[in-house]
Amino acid sequence: MSAVKLDGKATAARIKADLATRVAALKDRGITPGLGTVLVGDDPGSQIYVAGKHRDCAEVGIASIRVDLPATATQKDVEAAIDELNSSPACTGYIVQLPLPKHLDTMALLEQMDPAKDADGLHPVNLGRLVHMVDAPLPCTPHGIVLLLQEYDVPIKGADVVVVGRGITVGRSLGLLLTRRSENATVTLCHTGTQDLAAHVRRADIVVAAAGVPELITRDMVKPGAAVLDVGVSRINGKIAGDVAPDVEEVAGFLTPNPGGVGPMTRALLLSNVVEAAERA
Ligand SMILES: Nc1nc2c(c(=O)[nH]1)N[C@@H](CN(C=O)c1ccc(C(=O)N[C@@H](CCC(=O)O)C(=O)O)cc1)CN2
Fold it and tell me: Self-association or partners: how does it assemble (predicted)?
């Protein structure tokens, strides 16, 4: 058996084409959506992702505001950048690229953002709205995962989903998203304290691997026919190493390539949040 490829790159391209039309309509009304990014330090992965986000903006006609701060930036320096974006009329939505250097208080900085400009859906008010299952900008990777599954008609309602990793950008938020009434999946959130990971993964209809541990999910752990989404982005000698072993392809029903799977969807859904914020405003 060979898994159907969950092509994030192609799906993201379709989403971006639709967004370009919506951006053009906004511009006809005199509104130019603008995405701001705050990047602190020189983590190579974060540099690549932020550069990609601005390339995407140019592609669909969204204006870009880029704030790059050195790794030595203080809490006050980052707060000043956030204040500036909160009050800038050119910035309709923005993100603080994560992870931040360890000396910074991430939660305090996220809380300082204007929730109406939170393009990542990670402000506590917006995550709180997700908990309450009311309308809010959705975290980009989880939203991208749901849309990718829907694009390929992978059944979500009633599915047993195992998410490996409890980080806020993926695992924890994805659990909230998939257990809304509209998705109605049953979600098990596994993490470093999980006793028998293989036993959980083995009974899953959908596996989302977001632990950042190369080849954590092996062929023998996957139920034949399951959908497997690889969010892992470890870098070994500059090359991406996913959380899913390559031979999982032989047993899974659906599998994301990595790169080219969840990453491009994350970026497309970020643009979507920016456009939606501009349309709301
Ligand atoms: N503020 C945020 N920080 C982080 C988020 C996030 O959603 N908001 N998620 C991740 C990283 N991330 C977005 O910022 C991200 C990861 C991967 C990709 C991507 O397009 N990957 C490409 C490969 C690119 C490469 O060569 O490395 C792919 O998968 O095809 C985009 C965004 C953590 N931080």
Answer: Homodimer.
